[in-house]
Design brief:
Layout lengths: L1 H30 L3 H9 L2 H16 L4 H37 L1 H12 L13
Length: 128
């Protein structure tokens, strides 16, 4: 019991010393006696601090920040590339569709190649 009691007393003394030091620092800040605080009060005006905070928020923490804007630009470029590839594929299939509608030989060739169809008198061998 005695050890526990002395530990509590030591904690109270340490907390009291810490509180005294914090009060001393606050007094120095309020009196402008600390050189760093004097410099800050002289050059860092409230308008400047508010403007800096707003600019930092807009550039880094907003929904339209630099990072999200860069990510959106990358996504747009990726989608544009995908659209180009899909347009090329679409053109190929449109041309094939036109050829199938107008040319009987093309239709027969594609049906034979893809679906392995044959005439009744033919034998078809598939190599893979």
């Amino acid at each position: 019991m005695m050890i526990f009691g002395s530990g509590v007393v030591a904690a109270k003394v340490g907390a009291t010393r810490l509180l005294e030091e914090m009060l001393y620092i606050c007094a120095m800040i309020l009196n402008n006696s600390h050189p760093t605080i004097a410099w800050m009060r002289r050059y860092l005006r409230p308008g400047f601090m508010i403007t800096t905070a707003i600019i930092a928020f807009v550039l880094f923490f907003n929904d339209n920040s630099l990072l999200t804007t860069y990510e959106h630009e990358q996504e747009i470029n990726r989608l544009r590339t995908e659209i180009k590839e899909n347009r090329d594929t679409l053109r190929y299939y449109e041309a094939l569709n036109r050829a199938l509608d107008t040319d009987i030989e093309t239709m027969e060739r594609i049906v034979r190649e893809r679906y392995h169809m044959q005439r009744p008198t033919e034998d078809v061998y598939v190599f893979e």
